[in-house]
Amino acid sequence: MSLTVLKNDADFSALRLNVRAMEHIYWRHKILKEEKESMLASTDHAWSVLTTIANRDKRIHGELLNNWDSARFEDDPKRKKVSANIDPKDKFLQAFARACAYSSILVKNKKKATELIRKVMQTGGQ
Predict the structure, then answer these.
(1) Cα 50 to Cα 35: distance, rounded to the nearest angstrom
(2) pLDDT at 79
(3) I need a surface site. Which of 14, 38, 65, 89 has the fewest CB within 10 A?
(4) Among 7-21, 79-93, 102-116, which is the least confidently predicted range?
(5) Tens of pLDDT, residues 18-68
(6) Which H helix or E strand runs over 38?
(7) What are all long-range contacts of 98-106, with beta carbons under 8 Å and residues at least 24 apart?
(8) How far is C-alpha 34 from the geometric centre of its chain's CA atoms?
(9) Contacts with 12 (C-beta within 8 Å, 6 or more apart), sequence order
């Protein structure tokens, strides 16, 4: 690594994390499109894909939240919680938190989750 990168490791670390999060979002959409037929044919396969998405969402969200939190001052009231009033530059984290919450809720009920995903896919959604 160049000296500049090493000097600003925290910034580049945050950038790498955001790139991983964007790669995950791309993968999330791609996997649903690629596995559509298999998910429609098999409830177990649909469940497996949804569970994988939820687990990856949770992992990436945790990394993003830890990174966001570590950049806060100790006495910052926003620390340890992402509120609706966060700065515009933090909207990516907030949107990711919503996606993670949705996938976590979705996988709590296998029957409802697979019915919902199949219904959406059959009507042309992803």
Answers:
(1) 11
(2) 60
(3) 89
(4) 79-93
(5) 899 999 999 999 999 999 999 989 989 999 999 999 999 999 999 988 887
(6) helix 36-41
(7) 99/28, 99/57, 99/61, 100/54, 100/57, 100/58, 100/60, 100/61, 103/50, 103/53, 103/54, 103/57, 103/58, 104/54, 104/57, 104/58, 106/50, 106/54
(8) 19
(9) 5
Place of tokens 């649909």: 46
Angle between helices 110-122 and 91-106 (to 10 degrees): 110
Closest CA to 14 of 66, 88, 54: 66
| Contact between 103 and 54 (Cβ < 8 Å) | yes
